[in-house]
Design goal:
CATH class of the largest domain: Mainly Beta
Number of domains: 2
Structural class: mainly beta
Helix content: under 10%
Distance between the termini: 72 Å
Bound molecules: [4Cu:2S] cluster, dinuclear copper ion
Shape: globular
CATH architecture of the largest domain: 7 Propeller
Number of strands: 45
Oligomer: single chain
Strand content: 35-45%
């Protein structure tokens, strides 16, 4: 059955026509008015109205921009080593990148989501997924640092992640690839019935934000693509788009899109939580790393966990249902009221919108259309709220402005389409340059979107920027959505591939942002709180240097008595107690990155000198008029 492959090829062909048509682009970009410049202009010294946390895709990081200006403020290292910040290089943060596969200093990050209280963004944390070696990270927005990473066992291509419920009860991770559970050596073509799709519910402690895997729902072997929590009336439910409901072991030869409809899986997590709290579920051996950065000791620890609680959906009647949804749905988006669940069928000409109320009625009336692996399938007509007919080609993702409008991206026809919830009519469309993936309205994942801007994230930019060799930057485009018609305001480059972003009013976050770490509270194992404590300690071939740094010297600055073959630990404390005065340090030949140490913090790097001599080190961050004088020497003698 290859019936549905050809339309896909036709669609991709069309995409090429669209994206390579330079003239078309020039015509459309001419629509910019001088008014647009005014709307994005944030005068020097003024602050932006919104933070946008933009995922880095294959860079594995999260970048922080201001909106509407599009100014880049920071790249927060998450899953990839980052030499600028010594993330994954210094001894304090190396454990953060530990996994059951060992040290994995790279990942592919797609979906940031901001923590919520009562369905509104609270600005405490950003969560983000690592797809490749399945992980979920938590970034603490008081320090803009990654403070926790939990590995997801029994999962692969952790893609329908990391979306949070409306009181941040859970951050949820869904597997893209179904895999043998437990992992074992078996023929791939015995996929059907043997491969499982784990949907992982990670609880978030309301006090300290600590993450823990509460349970894994072990679903049939589909591909779980994206997900969204219910909110408002549908709070307590979670929705997942699926494809390959055929459970084909290859998506090439046996076309996975032969089924006219795949499913959105509706999961009543409150029901499962109750089941689990009453002792339900089975403990299954599973190794996964749980890495926590302690903000008091400024040091991470990595723990290897040994088991997870697994729940079989058929053991909890009434907890999981399938909603038929046409043609390989990708995005799965729930509107701010919680009533509408939008399934963006990549290969469908229409957008399908399900009704939560109708879904409950159908469940109540037990109107099932058979089951798949014991999970009741609801009838398409019974749950359908409406269809947006033929809005564009290749729908991917939808967001909401909180004023009754939805905005959907179309990858192939390269545009954002605005339509009305309830009447399903298209009211506006604007081109994207080019091939848009996700879009983001600040707060668009909550009950209270800030419906002023939409940010579209493009996969391809071709002629939009100065050429930089064969690869050109990806981009984000900002549209004003405060009026009836969308207006393109700005187009700016991004770091890595921006899959998705989360935005929030800056006021909510900036009040909480920490300015310095109190030196007196420094509980780092090798930290010092006064210059009286600086020293060099030798323990066999291991040397520990307790060093301080302050404008504009190191103490000690000249060190002797080191031998080739020693393992030298530099534990360096920044004694400053001023906002925005980090110092940096490294030493010649060290195969680690420099340390960039914040006021009040201690960081450690290890140096194994290979040659006798007198070797200089210096401060790498321009910190004062005497920055260039901030230096020292280490004398290394033969072994
Ligand atoms: S996915 Cu990238 S465009 Cu990973 Cu959210 Cu849809
Ligand atoms: Cu310290 Cu430059």
């Amino acid at each position: 059955m290859r019936k549905f492959k050809n339309p896909m090829l036709v669609l991709f062909g069309l995409a090429l026509v669209f994206t390579s048509c330079g003239d078309q682009k020039k015509g459309n970009s001419g629509a910019l008015t001088s008014n647009a410049a005014e709307k994005v202009y944030v005068a020097p010294g003024e602050h932006d109205e919104f933070y946008a946390f933009v995922s880095g895709g294959f860079s594995g990081q999260l970048s922080v921009y201001g909106l509407p200006s599009g100014r880049l403020f920071k790249v927060i290292p998450v899953f990839s080593q980052d030499a600028e910040k010594a993330w994954g290089y210094n001894e304090e943060t190396k454990p953060m990148l530990n996994t059951s596969f060992g040290f994995v200093p790279w990942d592919d990050s797609h979906h940031p989501d901001i923590s919520q209280t009562n369905g509104e963004l609270d600005g405490r944390y950003v969560f983000i997924n690592g797809n490749n070696t399945p992980r979920i990270a938590k970034i603490d927005l008081t320090v803009f640092e990654t403070t926790e990473i939990i590995e997801i066992p029994n999962s692969a291509g952790n893609h329908s992640s990391s979306f949070v419920t409306e009181n941040t009860e859970y951050v949820v991770a869904g597997t893209r690839f179904s895999v043998p559970v437990p992992q074992r050596d078996m023929p791939i073509n015995e996929y059907k019935g043997n491969f499982k799709g784990a949907l992982t519910f990670i609880s978030v402690d309301p006090e300290d934000g600590g993450m823990d895997i509460k349970f894994q729902l072990m679903m049939p072997g589909f591909d779980y693509d994206l997900s969204h929590p219910g909110r408002g009336k549908s709070h307590g439910w979670f929705f997942f788009t699926t494809y390959n409901s055929e459970e084909a072991s290859t998506l090439l030869e046996v076309n996975a899109s032969q089924n006219d409809k795949d499913f959105i899986a509706a999961v009543n997590w409150k029901k499962i939580e109750e089941y689990v709290n009453n002792g339900g579920g089975t403990k299954m051996p599973s190794n996964y790393a749980h890495n926590v950065y302690n903000e008091e000791t400024h040091t991470a620890t990595s723990t290897m966990e040994k088991e997870v609680l697994v729940v079989n959906p058929t053991d909890v009647p009434g907890a999981v249902f399938f909603l038929p949804t046409p043609k390989s749905p990708h995005g799965c988006d729930v509107d701010p009221s919680g009533e509408y669940i939008v399934g963006n069928g990549k290969l469908s000409a229409d957008l399908t919108v399900h009704s939560f109320t109708k879904m409950l009625e159908a469940i109540e009336g037990k109107k099932y259309d058979g089951d798949a692996y014991g999970i009741p399938i609801l009838k398409f007509e019974d749950v359908l709220a409406g269809t947006v007919s033929q809005p564009g080609l290749g729908p991917l993702h939808t967001e909401f402005d909180g004023q009754g409008n939805a905005y959907t991206t179309f990858f192939i026809s390269s545009e954002v389409v605005k339509w009305k919830l309830g009447t399903w009519e298209v009211v506006d469309r604007q081109p994207c340059f080019y091939s848009v993936g996700h879009l983001m309205i600040p707060g668009g994942n909550s009950r209270k979107p800030f419906g002023k801007y939409v940010l579209a994230m493009n996969k391809i930019t071709k002629d939009r920027y100065l050429p930089t060799g064969p690869e050109v930057t990806q981009s984000a485009q900002l549209y004003d959505i405060s009026g009836e018609k969308m207006e393109l305001l700005l187009d700016f480059p991004t770091v890595g591939e921006p899959h998705y972003a989360a935005g929030i009013a800056a006021d909510i976050v900036k009040e909480r942002s920490k300015k310095i770490f109190d030196l007196k509270e420094n509980k780092h194992e090798y930290g010092i709180t006064s210059d009286a404590d600086v020293r060099v300690e030798r323990n066999g071939m291991e040397v520990h240097i307790y060093m301080s740094m302050i404008r504009s010297h190191f103490n000690p600055d000249n060190i002797e008595g080191i031998k080739v073959g020693d393992k030298v630990y530099f534990h360096v404390t920044n004694m400053e107690q001023d906002y925005d005065v980090p110092h940096g340090v490294s030493i010649i030949g060290a195969n680690t990155s420099e340390l960039l140490i914040m006021p009040g913090q201690t960081e450690t790097f290890v140096w194994e000198p290979k040659q006798p001599g007198v070797w200089p080190f210096y401060c790498t961050d321009f910190c004062s008029a005497l920055h260039q004088e901030m230096q020292g020497y280490v004398r290394v003698s033969p072994a």
